[in-house]
Amino acid sequence: MRLIPYHTRLAWKSLRRDPGLSATIVIVLAAAASIFSTALIHYLRLYGPLPSLSPTLHQVEIPVDDRTLRLAFIGSAAAPIRLAARTRVSFPDYQVLASSRIPAHQMATFRSRLWIAADGGAAPAAPASSDGACSRNARFADAELFAMFAQRLRWGAPWSHDDETAGRPRVVLSRRLNDDLFAGADSTGKTVRIDGRPYLVKGVLADDPPVTAEWDPAAAGGGQDAVYLPFAEHQGLQAWPETPYFLSPVGPHHADLLASDAVFAWCVATSWACFARWARRAARCSGARSSRRRSCRPRPPRWAR
After folding, report:
1. Residue 131 to residue 129: CA distance in whole angstroms
2. β-bridge partners, 156
3. Domain ranges of the chain
4. Rounded CA gap, 36 and 86, in Å?
5. Which of 70, 74, 282, 303 is the most buried (most CB within 10 A)?
6. pTM for the structure as a whole
7. Residue 73 has pLDDT above 80, yes or no
8. Dihedral of CA 259/261/265/266: which sign?
9. CA distance to 7, 30, 65, 192, per residue, from 12 (Å)
10. How far is CA 3 from CA 9, 13, 278, in A?
């Protein structure tokens, strides 16, 4: 501390003696600090902080042939996202995995875009239609998602397996959507309308969903999830997935999509021993496509390791 006045006088003399060099040094240091801060903020936004997940979580991969994937995008300005093609499965493959009952815990999920409004006409704080509904990201998932990926709820609880079996219309809202529709108040027990259909709010998340969600890493950059619905509800809502990969021609109806080999669902299970049997079952039922496991936690970029 005693040397601070001495070094301050030296810095002032250097600045007066060569102001050009001193200004250049200050600008370079400021630019370096800005670049580092920007990179750090971007890294924290995408990769942290993350909840501690069980090391037994594994995700099934049934890779799509590269040639088939390239042919599917002929004539399109888009390009295939290889992470999505590698980490997602078709609906028939999902049915095979879900019906096996091999893992103690398993879930599947995909995302769609639906119109959401508070029942009673409350206007959301977002671009909306004439009836007060706004288009948001809706995620269809099994109830296991919240426990398997350590998602905390501020109010209420996730829907139960009994709710899924009975087909009860239940949803969990993100914190931001709850702020928009209900001014941040406890909305459990209230009703929201999704594509015109009423759903009872069972819970509200405590934290904002991550930009890079561990339950669907290929969806990063497409906006955060706003509402969570039971996986089977996509059939009643006729919801089309956000980015399906059509490997062969598909008819115009929702049933045509579910019967096709279009890749859009993400599946995860607990326990490697159970997963190995689970993956072998998928491989036998998917013809030439093979299966392998992948840890659920995404790896940070090389520069951040």
Report:
1. 5
2. 203
3. 4-47, 57-304
4. 33
5. 282
6. 0.73
7. no
8. positive
9. 9, 18, 66, 64
10. 10, 16, 68
